[in-house]
Each structure stands twice: as structure tokens, then as C-alpha cells.
Task: structure prediction
Amino acid sequence: MKKLSFNIIGAGAIGHLWTSFLINHGHKATLYSRSPRSPQFLQIQSPLGNFEQKINYQTIEDWKDADIILICVKAHQLEKLCQQLSQIMTKPCHIILMMNGMGLLEIVEQYLPQMAVIHASIIHGAYIQENELVHTGNGKTVIGNINSNYSEQEYQTLIQQLNESLPCVSWNNAHRQAMNLKLVINAIINPLTAINGQLNSSVLSDGKLNAQAESLLKELTPILKLILPKMSFHEIKEQVELVAHNTRNNQSSMLQDIRANKTTEIDFINGYLIDCAKKQQIELSQHVEIIKKIKALEN
Result:
């Protein structure tokens, strides 16, 4: 079977993680960064095994087509990136969004209507520290339809080769629900940990959501009935608690952004939920305040 080639856009932890593991498993994988960077040897520390990987960086100006594009940028950077790609991409290919937030597929489809685009749910802990990439826990990558009607068979080769490089990768026929659930989980854990400057475990008290986190989740109840109609409030709460427990020693991506003086993805997480609520004439006052607090920290 011919090995697929990959362009990975976004030189953060997830971009480096996928690039390193794809190259390590024999794929041609190119990592694109916003500005020129010198090559570096990265020490990968992972439950799947430790190894050293040389990373060569390219910029969008040096673009060469590949079979698959993995987009690992921050949500607020996506529109500008798509504008650039619309000017340089010469052949149709598959694009996988490996990003937090919702409402992102619509941005890509606006600028790149000829491309096959799907949104992946990534559950991998990783961070970069000097010349080390620390893979804090092997998780999973789930792919499926949100706005599209692709079949699992169409993505069988891609899923197999991704899974061989960085397991576990799978197809989900109920992907929209999975992405909505991840959105809700992120809307609780990410901003609270960023505001309080604490690890993910800080939203828990004796294994259950603390009062602040539970109140934030309860305010979403009318929206949860619309975006997660097959799940009860108790089931959703248990999933938030499970993720917080399983990632208890991790810094949320939003906390990492705040500490690095970067713009967060709050507009595409809590902001997306607020937009959904407005369409139903529902007010989410706590989430509005949460966004104000995050914006204040960004500034």
C-alpha cells in the first residue's frame, strides 16, 4: 500500500506530535509554521516509546501539495490561513481539522469549496519544552461527518495509516454528537482552569464537578437538549468529570495560551454556545462573563 503524504499546518504541540510520529513511521510529512524556523532535533517522550526526530520547517510560501492536509492551528487563525491556501493549492485533497471549537468547517468550506473537509476530535496530551516534545498520555483521534456524508470506506486507508503512526484512530458514525460533547467539556474545563491558573483537576472536588463548574454546566441545560438530545444531564456531567479526571495533571490548552500570552479559542467554544443560545432566545449570562474574564487575561 502506498504511503500517503501529509502537510501539517501549525507548529504547536499537536502539529509537532503528528509530524514526528508520521515521519517516524515512514511517511513524507512536512510541518508548516507561520514564520521561517531552523531545523531542529526533537526528543520525543511518549508512552508509545521515546525517539529523536529531525523536524524541517516550511512556510506557506514554500507550499508543495500533499495527499492529506492536517490543520492544527488555533481557531482564530483559520480564516486567514484558508485565504492563503485558496491562492496556492493546485489540486483537490482531503483536509482534516485537528482543532478545538465548532463553526470551523464552515470557514474552510467558504474558501476551499473543492476540498473534502472533515473535523477530527483529538484527545492527546502533549506539550513542548525547549527541544523536547512530551506526549503526556496516549489518547485517541476520532474522525467522522459533521456537515458531510462521507463513508467510512472512503477514509479507510487514511484511518489505517494514521492509526499505524499514532494510535488510536477510528471513524465515528455519530461524530457530530461526539464533537458537541467535546465542545461542552472544553467549555467547562478550559476557561475555568485558565482563569484560576490551575490544572484540569481543579474543576473537581472529591471526584465530582465543583460548584463553579457545575453551575456553568447547568446554565447550558436548554442548549444541551438541542445539541446532545440523546444524553441526559447526568451523563454529560459524568463525561466532563471523566475527562477532568483522566487529564487531571494536564494544563488545558486555554491555560497554556494565557500563560504564553496568546489569543485563546474561547470565541469558538463558549462563544459558539452563546451564538447557538441566542438563536433560541436563550441567555447564557455566566458564559458571557467567562468570556469577558478570558478576554481580560488575553489583554
About this structure: The longest helix spans residues 175-196. The radius of gyration is 19 Å.
